[in-house]
Amino acid sequence: MSKALVAYFSASGTTAKVAKDLAAAIEADLFEIAPAQPYTRADLNWNDSSSRSSVEMNDEACRPAIEGEVANMAAYDTVFVGYPVWWYVEPRIIDTFLEAYDFAGKTVVPFATSGGSGLGRAPQRMQALVPGAKVLAGGLLNGRPAKAELADWAEKSLEA
């Protein structure tokens, strides 16, 4: 596998666990897409239309600020981008991350954790944000798969 980065956003820790395991399984570097303003439990209440996450997801132009940056994005050929599924797509903070770097010539592999939905339109939305990159179909990585399973998933995703 070419030089890879696993970049992830995790609101509750579930996606973080999978991202760390994936990075270890494929010997990739790891980067946390951390919000400059951390999300509180109230912010994540999707049942409250005035919660921060609800407001962000209802605004296509919303780009929550990220703390920190990838030191040398140019060094990576493949970027696995992990996130929890929000409103059937990627959270807006993932859009912030994708628009912050030049992904031209790179392969982007979305992966997500979800309590009940698939990736939805996320790969298509992500492709629109990274012109010149190839965004693959990706997949759900629920239930904390074993490292061997994650390595196999990554290899098969890149072959698609």
Describe the structure.
With 160 residues, the protein is α/β, with parallel strands linked by helices. The chain has one domain (4-159): 3-Layer(aba) Sandwich (Rossmann fold). Helix content is 30%, strand content 19%. It is built from five helices and eight strands. It has helices spanning 14-26, 52-57, 92-99, 122-129, 147-159, and strands at residues 4-8, 29-32, 34-35, 66-67, 78-84, 107-113, 134-135, 139-140. Strands 1, 2, 5, 6, 7 and 8 form a six-stranded parallel sheet that branches. A two-stranded antiparallel sheet has the order 3-4. Helix 1 packs across helix 5. It is globular, with a radius of gyration of 15 Å. The mean pLDDT is 95.
Short description:
By secondary structure, the protein is α/β, with parallel strands linked by helices. It has five helices and eight strands; from the N terminus they run βαββαββαβαββα. It has helices at 14-26, 52-57, 92-99, 122-129, 147-159, and strands at residues 4-8, 29-32, 34-35, 66-67, 78-84, 107-113, 134-135, 139-140.
